[in-house]
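#structure-requests
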Amino acid sequence: MLKTWHHTAPRWLPGGQLQTIWPALYARSFQGRKPEYARERWDSPDGDFVDVDFSTHPIDVKQALLVLFHGLEGSSQSHYALAFAHWARERKMPFSVPHFRGCSGEINRMPRAYHSGDFHEIDWILRRLKAREPQRKLLVVGISLGGNALMRWAQEMGASASKVAQAVASVCSPLDLAAAGHCIGSGLNRRIYTPMFLRTMKPKALQRLALHPALFDRKKLEQTTDLYEFDNIFTAPLHGFQNTEDYWHRASAKPRMAEIQIPALALNAKNDPFMPANSLPEAGKVGAHVTLWQPAHGGHVGFAQGRFPSHVHAMPNAVGQWLLDHSR
């Protein structure tokens, strides 16, 4: 059983910023042919839809289903999703990537989007996946935003979570949303990542406004240059929060980690540029069911290894094996 994991970054890739950017853009996410998916569109209970991608590789009927919830503005084509798809393909495991609303390439019908504490959406998706094949085990990994929402789901479900999933894992998740929010909104992060996220988030919000006039103040959203204000104008009020501060407070998983009652892994690199190391969960405060992996290096969902240009298989291998070990 894999109890812990020590990641060693390549010498030519120093620092959290490079260990974040290079793997996302240039490192190898898979070997051989690119993983392929078949898409299903599910009608949601509120009259909207969610697009779910399923791997098309051959599977073993006895293997568990691996489900991945992506990060902010991610998808089944994100480098980490392709890496996990490759890991599942090697083991003949079925693999699924549900898309949060607005992330599958088509704008949704309803005003609702997605957020870091979206455990209601996760609950509906996981229960529907479980109902398809009740005898198949369910292993779930959440990346960044998706991981925080997944941990919030495990907290809210308590003991009943084990009726749906056998084990869960969060990878580089902003478990303390206030710490992460202030971090990504300052210094070099504000110059690099804020424009990258807003480049897609603002047009999607405006598409929703075209479908639902008066949803928010168009001029204010167009003028915003940081994620704090975007959440204040769009994310928070749209999903039942008073403002950004209320959203961060109520949606953060860190304060309630001790309430989780199924095997749960929280992996966070200490040099993740999105998360201050001193804000990460501490051993002894997360409960007996939670395992913390906090390697010194890795960046934000990077964890590159190997010779230039490196690969990103090490993290899915370690996280996937941990999930398998804790599902028996």
